[in-house]
Each structure stands twice: as structure tokens, then as C-alpha cells.
């Protein structure tokens, strides 16, 4: 990994012990440089947010937990392969995955040009060569992927409907959900093999699940 030259403001340096504790709980072993990348992403997210409206969360502590830790929680449970993150917004979880797994090719897809511009800038500053930000609607995007993620879709059925044409043979859809959507899972069970992973997000006392769907 090439050395990156970015500077953290003191308020973000102070978050490092909290990040390290979360990484320990999630059993993620990241280098000092990867930890710096995560905190710099958070810093830039909240800086750009003033002009670009990237997130409703403006507090650095809350954003660390609800964006960074939440996105990191899926990393140990992702299957191998090229990954497409649909409706990535400001790059969640795409940027987190790209930082944690530099060997994995990650495509961050969103129709919002401003959000993709932010991801391009922060990816460039962090030297994330494995991350490809794309401004497009899913219907207009070409290509197939082994892994498709999203934390943006309210409906599991909608997510599957929009993403299935981009799924490679033997590929897996990984939907990030809060409460397990039991009714929607039942509606999809005839066509999909479905498994659920309960997630524990450090410092977040809310239900989180990762739903795996395979044809």
C-alpha cells in the first residue's frame, strides 16, 4: 500500500482509541494506515457535508458509530469476489470495504453526482486504487458482480428486483437491514436461498442483520 499523506484534525485523532476498541470487538485487524484512512474519511464526510448534504448526522461521535462502525460490522461476513454497492450514498459501506480489503475490487454506485464526486475525491486522497465510484442509476449500469451490497434500500424485495440482473452466476446479494424482514424473506424464499447473519455493531444498541440471497 502506498503511503498516504493526509492530516487528521485533533478532534478526529481523539477518536482513534474508540475506533481501535470497535475493531477489536469486530475482530478486524487493520494497520495504522487503514485506521487513519477510516478516520480521515469520517473527517472529510463531515467537512463536505456542510456544502453537499451527504448525511443527516453532523456529530462526529454519532457518525463514527452509525456510519463507520455500522459499515465495518459487515466486513468479516462478506463472501469473496468483486463487490457492487448500490445506492452507496457517501460511500457506505463501499469505502469501508475498500479500505479494509484492499485486494477486493469495489464499485460504489449512486445516481447522485455530488455524492459520487465526494467519493472520487476522498478515494484519490486515500489512494484507494481498488475503489471505482460510478454516478449512474442501477438500470443503466453494465457489468455483473459476485457480491452486491446495499444499506440504502428500504425494501428487501425492491433491492433484489433492482440488483438481480447485475448478479454473477453463483453470486450473492448481501442486504444490510435493521430488524430482520421476516415477511419479505418469506416472499422471496421460492426463488432464493436465504440466510441471515445477526450483526453486533459496537456502541449501537439497535438491531442489525445481514441477509444473504443466492439463486
Overall average pLDDT: 96
Low-confidence stretches: none
The H-and-E topology, N to C, reads as HHHHEHEHEEHEHEE
> Strand fraction band?
15-25%
Q: Please outline the major beta sheet.
A: 7 strands, mixed
| Overall body shape | globular
Structural class: alpha/beta
Instruction: Tally the beta strands.
Output: 7
Count of helical regions: 8
What topology, given as strand order, has the largest sheet?
Answer: 3-2-1-4-5-7-6
State the share of residues found in helices, binned by percent. 25-40%
Terminus-to-terminus distance: 36 Å
Gyration radius (Cα, Å) is 17 Å
Key descriptive features of the protein:
215 residues; alpha/beta; 21% strand; single chain; 40% helix; globular
Structural notes for this entry:
40% of the residues lie in helices and 21% in strands. It has a 7-stranded mixed sheet with strand order 3-2-1-4-5-7-6, sandwiched between helices. Helix 3 (32-52) crosses helix 4 (60-72). Helix 7 (156-163) links the parallel strand 4 and strand 5. It is globular and about 55 Å long. It has 215 residues and is α/β, with parallel strands linked by helices. The termini are far apart. It has 8 helices and 7 strands, in the order H-H-H-H-E-H-E-H-E-E-H-E-H-E-E.
Amino acid at each position: 500500500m502506498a503511503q498516504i499523506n493526509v492530516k487528521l484534525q485533533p478532534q478526529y485523532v481523539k477518536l482513534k482509541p474508540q475506533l481501535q476498541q470497535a475493531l477489536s470487538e469486530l475482530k478486524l485487524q487493520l494497520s495504522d494506515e487503514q485506521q487513519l484512512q477510516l478516520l480521515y474519511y469520517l473527517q472529510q464526510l463531515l467537512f463536505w457535508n456542510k456544502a453537499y448534504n451527504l448525511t443527516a448526522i453532523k456529530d462526529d461521535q454519532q457518525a463514527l458509530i452509525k456510519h463507520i462502525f455500522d459499515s465495518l460490522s459487515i466486513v468479516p461476513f462478506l463472501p469473496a469476489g468483486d463487490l457492487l454497492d448500490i445506492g452507496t450514498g457517501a460511500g457506505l459501506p463501499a469505502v469501508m470495504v475498500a479500505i479494509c480489503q484492499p485486494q477486493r475490487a469495489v464499485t460504489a454506485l449512486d445516481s447522485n453526482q455530488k455524492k459520487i464526486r465526494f467519493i472520487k475525491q476522498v478515494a484519490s486522497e486515500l489512494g484507494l486504487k481498488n475503489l471505482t465510484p460510478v454516478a449512474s442509476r442501477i438500470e443503466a449500469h453494465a457489468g455483473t458482480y459476485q457480491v452486491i451490497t446495499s444499506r440504502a434500500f428500504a425494501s428487501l424485495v425492491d433491492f433484489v428486483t433492482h440488483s438481480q440482473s447485475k448478479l454473477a452466476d453463483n453470486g450473492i446479494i448481501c442486504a444490510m437491514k435493521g430488524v430482520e424482514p421476516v415477511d419479505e424473506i418469506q416472499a422471496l424464499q421460492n426463488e432464493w436461498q436465504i440466510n441471515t447473519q445477526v450483526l453486533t455493531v459496537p456502541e449501537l444498541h439497535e438491531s442489525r442483520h445481514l441477509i444473504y440471497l443466492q439463486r
